[in-house]
Design brief:
Elements: H1 2-26, H2 29-54, E1 65-68, E2 71-74, E3 89-90, E4 94-100, H3 107-112, H4 114-121, E5 125-129, E6 135-141, E7 160-166, E8 171-175, E9 182-185, H5 192-204, E10 209-214, E11 230-232, H6 235-259, E12 276-281, H7 284-287, H8 293-312, E13 318-324, H9 333-341, E14 344-347, H10 353-361, H11 365-372, E15 381-385, E16 391-396, H12 401-410, H13 419-432
Parallel strand pairs: 9-13, 9-14, 10-11, 10-12, 12-13
Antiparallel strand pairs: 1-2, 3-4, 4-6, 5-6, 7-8, 7-16, 14-15, 15-16
Helix pairs in contact: 2-4, 5-12, 6-8, 6-13, 8-9, 10-11
The protein binds adenosine-5'-triphosphate.
Adenosine-5'-triphosphate binds near residues 188, 325 and 379.
Protein name: FtsK/SpoIIIE domain-containing protein
Keywords: ATP-binding, Membrane, Nucleotide-binding, Transmembrane, Transmembrane helix
Organism: Streptomyces vulcanius
Length: about 425
């Protein structure tokens, strides 16, 4: 009897420590459906009224003022009624419930109460959206889905890159046909270069010209030279490359005018010029000057040229992806104007609230707070805007440098020629000799 009991006890201990630990670390979906969801749903149902009352979501059917004889009595009516909500529905990441707003309520009241829901239901986060007038959808996430994001998939499309996974479990896609220009910010070691590497590996397989502007001596983008149509490694080269691209853009304009169309996408396939994606790593290197006249003139030229490309490039197949550690008006007046043209925004962890505000503040105030909450340990996590004007937390797929370099080499034969840009760089080299 003794050995059987001992074996049984050992088996139970092994189950608790080994299997329990695996479950805790990997949080498999079945564990959530079997144990996590029933507990969380129970919490939602039993705390709903109390949370609603404490956060002013419950409204009494009695009037706040009434006549008693000839006296008007004002006060807080008794027995407020909590808004009606559906039974929580399980999702692989957490649960959702639909709430019917009381007349006079707006989703903003629920946004304010989101933190209260998080604590009452003991979940990682609660997002509030309004899919329909009069309804609010509360999406509770049991744990941070971006800790171990799954491999999302997306259909392959020209100028579209699968960057990573969204907090909702969907694919994080940067589609330059939908949102032509992007601004990527993040403090040092937050994941900007990894994201650019991912973008390059995704675009490398397509008929797209990639132009790098990396004034940190080409340390980051230089790795992908094999698949780049041109690379500027200092500000003088950047001015030459951007000026050549502006001339190329004017040629594209004339081609469209002669064909009587408003964008290169309406041109017949044979006449359509190759789309160009300009990747700028560290925008501050283009805008900051050391006070000399020459440096100031270069910075101003860069600012004007980038702005022109951003203003006119979208319809002509010239796209900007600009990355930097910080963006602020102190870099120069041109930065704010350029930011207004970069419709797509990605904000990693930032060191100062001003940069998060500058990146996302003009689009969505809630997103700024979420971006500021990204910690140093959450590398590659960012708040990104979507084509529908919404925003989401997301994480890029970690593309190791050697993998990105190998992809760039593999598709080097697909690198399109940009004769104007190449000529400008050769002329500059000749001047330097
Ligand atoms: N999506 C990700 N998932 C996991 N780790 C990541 C991710 N993105 C980046 N990292 C890690 O963070 C480190 C720093 O990333 P990266 O070099 O891209 O930062 P950065 O913002 O470009 O920094 P810097 O401005 O100093 O160049 C990388 O070495 C990588 O290990």
């Amino acid at each position: 009897m003794g050995p059987i009991v001992l074996a049984f006890a050992l088996a139970v201990l092994a189950w608790m420590f080994v299997v329990g630990d695996l479950v805790r670390r990997h949080r498999p979906v079945w564990h959530w459906y079997l144990i996590g969801y029933p507990v969380a749903a129970w919490r939602v149902v039993f705390t709903w009224r109390r949370v609603a009352v404490l956060n002013d979501l419950a409204v009494s059917r009695l009037p706040a003022r009434t006549l008693v004889g000839h006296l008007l009595v004002k006060g807080d009516p008794v027995r407020p009624v909590a808004p009606r909500c559906s039974f929580p529905r399980a999702t692989p990441m957490g649960l959702t419930l639909v709430v019917r707003l009381h007349a006079g309520q707006t989703p903003a009241t629920y946004l304010k109460a989101a933190d209260a829901f998080v604590h009452a239901w003991k979940v990682h986060a609660v997002r509030v959206t309004s899919p329909e007038r009069g309804l609010v959808l509360l999406t509770a996430m049991a744990s941070d889905p971006l800790e171990r994001p799954g491999l999302a998939t997306a259909p392959a499309e020209l100028l579209s890159a699968l960057i990573g996974a969204l907090e909702t479990g969907g694919a994080w896609v940067m589609n330059l046909r939908l949102v032509p220009h992007w601004l990527i910010v993040g403090a040092t070691r937050s994941g900007k270069s990894t994201l650019l590497a991912r973008l390059i590996t995704q675009l490398a397989t397509q008929r797209v010209a990639l132009v790098g502007v990396d004034c940190k001596g080409g340390m980051e983008l230089g790795l992908f030279t094999a698949r780049l149509s041109a690379l500027a490694t200092c500000r003088r080269e950047a001015v030459a490359v951007l000026a050549a691209l502006v001339v190329d853009m004017q040629d594209r304009m004339s081609a469209c005018r002669s064909a009587g169309v408003r964008s290169i996408w309406e041109l017949p396939d044979k006449l359509r010029p190759v789309p160009v994606v300009v990747l700028v790593d560290e925008i501050a290197e283009l805008y900051l000057s050391d006070g000399t006249r020459e440096s100031k003139a270069e910075a101003e030229q860069c600012s004007t040229l980038l702005l022109r490309l951003a203003q006119l490039g979208a319809a002509l197949g010239i796209h900007l992806v600009v990355a930097g550690q910080r963006v602020g008006s102190d870099l120069g007046p041109g930065v704010t104007a350029l930011r207004a043209q970069l419709g797509g925004r990605i904000c990693h962890r930032v060191n100062d609230p001003g940069t998060a505000e500058m990146t996302l503040g003009d689009l969505n105030k809630d997103a700024v707070a979420v971006a500021q909450a990204i910690t140093a340990a959450e590398r590659g996590v960012a708040v990104c805007t979507g084509p529908d004007g919404g925003w989401s937390r997301a994480r890029s797929h970690l593309t190791p440098t050697d993998e990105a370099v190998a992809t760039a080499r593999k598709y080097s034969a697909m690198t399109p020629e940009l004769p104007l840009v190449t000529r400008a760089l050769v002329a500059l080299e000749g001047e330097n000799k």
